[in-house]
C-alpha cells in the first residue's frame, strides 16, 4: 500500500492555551484534492500550521509522506491567506523571484537559475503577462496567481492553500480552482485548500475535510456533507440544503430562528 501524503493520529493542536483540534485522526491519500471546510475559527489555519511543523501537537503525531512533519520542509508549499502583498513598483517577476530559495525583496536575486525558475512558475499559472507589471497595479485574482507561482518554485508535492478564493468574484474563483486542480493533477501534487464556501469546489474535490467543534472528518462529499453526519460532528442540529446544484449548511437552534453560519461564511437567520 502506498504511504498516505498525510496521516494525523490522535492529534491535538492548541492556540493561545486552548485546544482548537482534539484527538483528530485522518489520512489523505497521495495526489488527492481536499477541500478543508469549517466556520470561522474552526481551525483550518491551525491545521495547516500543524502540517508545516509551525505548531507542535500537544498529543498525537502528524506524518507527511511517512515522516514526522518538520519546519521548513520545501516539499510542503504553503500559501497563507492573502493579507499584505509587497506594494510599490516591485514587478510580478521580481516578487516571484524573491521567493526563490527563501530570498526576500531587497536582497540579491537567485541569479540566472532563480530567474528561470520564476519564469517557469509564472508560465505554470498563466501569469507571464504579469511579469513586468508592478504588483501594486494588479487585481486580487492576479496577485493570487503570483502567490501560487511562488509556492510552485520549490516543486512541492503538497500544496496547502489557505483560502485562495477569498475576495475573488465567482468567475475568478472558478478559474482559480480549475487552474490549481489541473496543475495538481499534472504534477501529482496533493492539495489541501481551505474555503468558506463548498460550492466552487464541488466537482473538483476527492475528499472534504470538515472541521467543527474541535473535531475533523475526512470523506467524500456525499458522505460528509449530509444532515446526519454534520449533526453528529457539530453535536447540534445541522441541516444540509440542496438548492439547484448548490449546497448550504445551516445550523438550527432548538426550533426557532437563530443566528447561523453556512458554508458561504455569511451569517444569516435561517428558518427551517
Ligand atoms: N495566535 C493565536 N493566539 C491565540 N489564539 C489563536 C491564535 N490564532 C488563532 N487562534 C484561535 O484559534 C482558533 C482557530 O483559529 P484558526 O485561525 O485556525 O481558524 P480558521 O478556521 O482558519 O478561521 P478563519 O476561517 O476565520 O480563517 C480560533 O479560536 C482563534 O481565535
Automatic annotation (TrEMBL):
A Pfam family assignment: ABC_tran
Signal peptide positions (record): none
Origin: domain of life: Bacteria
PROSITE patterns: ABC_TRANSPORTER_1, ABC_TRANSPORTER_2
Domain (ABC transporter) ranges: 6-238
GO molecular function, one term: ATP binding
Record has Transport as a keyword: yes
Tagged with keyword Translocase: no
UniProt-recorded name of the protein: ABC transporter ATP-binding protein
Organism: Acetobacter thailandicus
Amino acid at each position: 500500500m502506498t504511504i498516505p501524503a498525510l496521516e494525523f493520529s490522535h492529534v491535538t493542536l492548541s492556540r493561545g492555551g486552548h485546544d482548537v483540534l482534539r484527538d483528530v485522526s485522518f489520512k489523505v491519500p497521495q495526489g488527492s484534492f481536499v477541500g478543508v471546510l469549517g466556520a470561522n475559527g474552526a481551525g483550518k489555519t491551525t491545521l495547516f500550521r500543524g502540517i508545516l511543523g509551525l505548531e507542535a501537537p500537544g498529543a498525537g503525531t502528524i506524518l507527511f509522506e511517512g515522516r514526522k512533519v518538520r519546519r521548513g520542509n520545501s516539499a510542503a508549499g504553503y500559501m497563507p491567506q492573502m493579507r499584505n502583498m509587497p506594494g510599490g513598483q516591485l514587478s510580478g517577476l521580481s516578487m516571484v523571484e524573491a521567493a526563490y530559495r527563501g530570498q526576500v525583496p531587497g536582497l540579491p536575486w537567485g541569479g540566472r537559475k532563480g530567474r528561470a525558475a520564476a519564469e517557469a512558475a509564472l508560465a505554470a499559472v498563466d501569469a507571464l503577462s504579469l511579469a513586468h507589471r508592478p504588483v501594486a497595479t494588479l487585481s486580487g485574482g492576479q496577485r493570487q496567481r503570483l502567490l501560487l507561482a511562488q509556492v510552485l518554485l520549490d516543486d512541492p508535492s503538497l500544496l496547502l492553500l489557505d483560502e485562495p478564493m477569498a475576495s475573488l468574484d465567482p468567475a475568478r474563483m472558478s478559474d482559480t480552482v480549475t487552474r490549481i486542480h489541473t496543475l495538481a493533477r499534472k504534477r501529482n501534487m496533493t492539495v489541501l485548500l481551505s474555503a468558506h464556501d463548498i460550492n466552487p469546489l464541488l466537482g473538483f474535490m476527492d475528499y472534504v475535510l470538515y472541521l467543527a467543534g474541535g473535531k475533523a472528518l475526512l470523506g467524500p462529499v456525499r458522505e460528509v456533507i449530509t444532515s446526519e453526519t454534520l449533526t453528529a460532528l457539530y453535536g447540534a442540529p445541522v441541516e444540509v440544503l440542496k438548492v439547484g446544484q448548490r449546497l448550504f449548511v445551516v445550523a438550527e437552534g432548538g426550533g426557532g430562528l437563530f443566528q447561523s453560519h453556512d458554508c458561504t461564511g455569511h451569517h444569516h437567520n435561517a428558518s427551517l
